[in-house]
Amino acid sequence: MHVVSITIKPLDILMLRGVGEFDPSSRGVFSYASSLYLPRPSTLIGLLCSIILELKGESPHSHGTWDELLNEYVNLLNKAGIKAIRGPYIRKRDEVYVPLYIGKEFVVAELRQVKYFLSCPVEIEEVLNGKTVLSYLCGQGMRPELLEVIKCKIMQPLIREKLNRDGIERLGIGLQGRSEPAFKGVKEGYIYTARYVAYPKNVDIAFETVFRDEKSKEDFKEKVGEEVPVKFGGEHRIARLRVENHSALWRYFKKNLGKSFKYALLVSPLIVGDLADLSNVNFIGILDVIGLGYSLAVHRRKPIYQALLEGSIVCLRESHELKPEAFSQGLYELLGLSGKYESVSRLGFGSFVPIG
After folding, report:
1. How far apart are CA 312 and CA 106, in angstroms?
2. How is the chain split into domains, by residue range?
3. Which of 24, 123, 242, 285 is buried most deeply by CB count within 10 Å?
4. Quick check: 305 pLDDT over 80?
């Protein structure tokens, strides 16, 4: 497997948008936007394709539909020799931190500890009867009393990476213009509030890029260089991008190759065009509606789809032996949906890690 890790070091607070429009010109008392904790694959693939276009000296082609844009993304990945991207996740030193929903509470926790606390037999006889947390939840569902036990007695020791979203709030206005002497006029109705996410200094956003062969990988690394400044997320905040051979998420996969697993933790959303595709899928987590971002090339929003959110746990119908190709193919393959969602899977959706 020819994998490199692309890490993004935010140099400022970030606005990682989810569903819906946000514009100070929106009419009403005021406009409001709140950043996601983690970027989604749509943000990452937009950044990666911009880099590929710049390296090739090309401009984005005009497109009228989502299918046309999707084909353009896939063609750009093919030109660069990229099979798929996987992630994102948080990297703190050499440790992998992944999203996890405990009930409706969202946390970013260290992967090895998540696997331990969810998969090992935990002796809480009055609730679990000697079963693992995962096997009990998938068999019995999320009972309120069990959720409290998990929060207080099982998940409490987890090392969580606190991402500060609640305290970074800014109030903005739109200016009409300047006049003499030094007077600023404010546009009526142009007032907005935005909540941003701030990452600790020792934390990076990372995602893995899987190449078709060694030559494609080395060509990409040589052309991009070791470190470049990039504009990332909403409002084009400055970040530092690095291309590294040290791929923490792929390393976790390699350690578990050949082992059997039945439970998969989603690192990125599993989007579906039809809820019938999830009718036979057992999961612990949140099913919601997400947007796939905004196309700067044609100034148009991408579609909105239903998705099983990152941090959700999927119970597969049967145990599978973890093989190398599962890393690049994602969860769609294991659910028998690869043909229908092959393109979005290559863009990073449906990324997962085995946890039991």
Report:
1. 10
2. 2-161+196-354
3. 285
4. yes
pLDDT at residue 210 tops 90: yes
Structure tokens at 346: 């290559």
- Cα–Cα distance between 88 and 108 in angstroms, integer? 12
Name the DSSP class of 268: S
Positive or negative, the Cα torsion across 197, 118, 84, 18? negative
The span from the CA of 277 to the CA of 282, in Å, is: 12
Task: Give the Cα separation of 314 and 125 in Å (integer).
Answer: 25
Give the span between the Cα atoms of 318 and 261, in whole angstroms: 9
What is the percent of the chain where pLDDT is above 70?
76
Q: Using CB atoms within 10 A of its CB, is residue 183 exposed (0-12), middle (13-18) or buried (19+)? A: exposed
pLDDT exceeds 60 at position 50 = yes
- For 235, the token pair is 């409002």
CA-CA distance, 203 to 163, in Å (whole number)?
A: 10
Specify the 3-state DSSP secondary structure of 287: strand
Q: Pick the closest to residue 278 from 335, 193, 331 (CA basis).
A: 335
CA 340/CA 332 separation, integer angstroms: 9
Residues 208, 327: Cα–Cα separation, whole Å: 10
Token pair 């609730």 in the structure block, residue: 127
CA–CA separation, 293 vs 18, rounded Å? 7
Select the more confidently predicted residue: 172 or 282: 282
